[in-house]
Amino acid sequence: MKKALFFIIISTAGIITCMPSCKKNSADVLAGAAICDTSAVSYKNDVVPILQEYCYNCHGTHVAAAGGGIILEGVENLANYANNNQLSGDISAAPGYTPMPYGKPKLPSCQLNKILAWVNQGINDN
Question: What is the pTM of this model?
Fold first, then answer.
C-alpha cells in the first residue's frame, strides 16, 4: 500500500512539474498570431505589400517577359486578372490554374486570404 501511495504521489508531482504553464502573456501571443483581419482590406496597405514580396519579381512592370507577359503591378493590371478569376485561381492553386508563386511555396494563409478578401470586396483602389 505504501509503495502504491508513493508511486501515485511521485507520478502526480511529475505531471504537475512537467505541465507547461499558462500565462496571460503567452495566451496573448498565441491569439495575436492567429488573427488575420480581412474585414476591410486595402489595396494600398494590404495587397500591394504582398504583391511586392511575392509577385513583382516576375510580374512587375520592369520584368514583363519573365512572368509570361502578365503584369500585376498597378490596380488596373491586377483587376484584369482578378475579374476573370485567374488571380484567385492561381494563388489558391485551384485545379486548372497555375499555382503561384511559380515554383515556390503557396502564399501564407493570411496573405492569401487578404488578397481573396480584396477581390470579394470589390477590387477597390483603396
Answer: 0.72
Q: Encode pLDDT of 40-87 as tens digits.
A: 999 999 999 999 999 999 999 988 566 888 999 999 999 999 999 999
How many whole angstroms separate alpha carbon 99 and alpha carbon 77?
19
What tens digit of pLDDT does each residue of 96-105 get? 999 999 999 9
Q: Of 81, 79, 83, 61, which Cα lies nearest the Cα of 71?
A: 61
Nearest to 71 by CA among 57, 84, 83: 57
Q: What is residue 94's DSSP assignment?
A: -
Residue 56, C-beta contacts closer than 8 angstroms, at least 6 positions apart: 72, 73
Contact 65, 71 (CB under 8 A): no
